[in-house]
């Protein structure tokens, strides 16, 4: 029961991420950099608590870990850009096409075979995205640029799908160490861009405070809660719990920013999240 509750907390925290990103007056690259950088510091301070057995790590796994860290950092950049340019609902639902993309990439890379169920899932998710995009004309609020926001969310989904596939091939590296190294690589990847752009010189106290909140409550805490408990629950439970993230994100957007939630959003979300659920259940059966 404790593991179940911890995962629920982690998913809810991730779901509230968009609220804080929208209120940080910094470009997406800088936000992603500081999120990773502060989280790395917190993880390093916690490292003595998490004992890990020394294991032999292949050169391939090391390079894959570096590659996944780069993809993770860029994934955050595009996701945060999506939050800036469209509603949390649009960004979240579009981003959640990542599991479907994992299936597509797995087939392309020859790791899985194409089935009727996978084709159905891909078609349904594609229809869902079209429906979501069609809703943007009626939600032109403020400075939103929905087309750019949704495209950024899809780019983030592609990168996150890549992270999932790459991590699947990484062997003999404990979860804590893997997370720490990935975030360190993300920090190093984004650092040159942050230095070149020099946007941090005008950072406000409010933005600094929100960045600390994002790093602590949306990275450090949920990462530890999720990865230390996910193996303690059944696979179908983990699949169902993952839906707390997008659902809570949409609810937060509705309550905090009064973002419109139309019937089209509900239908589009069902078309995207439904196939994700179907394939999550399929994993358990197989």
Brief write-up:
The C terminus is likely disordered.
What is the helix/strand order? HHHHHHHHHHHHH
Mean pLDDT: 82
Could you list the spans in which at least 5 consecutive residues all have pLDDT below 50?
281-286
Category from helices, strands and their pairing = mainly alpha
How helical, in percent, are the residues? over 70%
Strand % is under 5%
Overall shape: globular
Assembly state of the chains shown: single chain
Terminal Cα span: 25 Å
Radius of gyration using CA atoms only? 19 Å
**What's the total count of β strands?**
0
Major sheet size, sense and barrel closure: none
Total DSSP helices: 13
Task: Write a concise keyword list for the protein shown above.
286 residues; disordered C terminus; mainly alpha
Description:
With 286 residues, the chain is an all-alpha fold. 76% of the residues lie in helices and 0% in strands. The protein is built from 13 helices and no strands. Helix 1 (2-15) packs antiparallel against helix 10, helix 3 crosses helix 4 and helix 11 (235-241) runs antiparallel to helix 13. The longest helix is centred in the N-terminal third of the chain and has 27 residues, at 59-85. The radius of gyration is 19 Å and the shape is globular.
Strands, helices and their partners?
Layout: H1 2-15, H2 17-21, H3 28-46, H4 59-85, H5 88-95, H6 98-108, H7 116-134, H8 146-168, H9 175-197, H10 205-229, H11 235-241, H12 244-257, H13 263-285
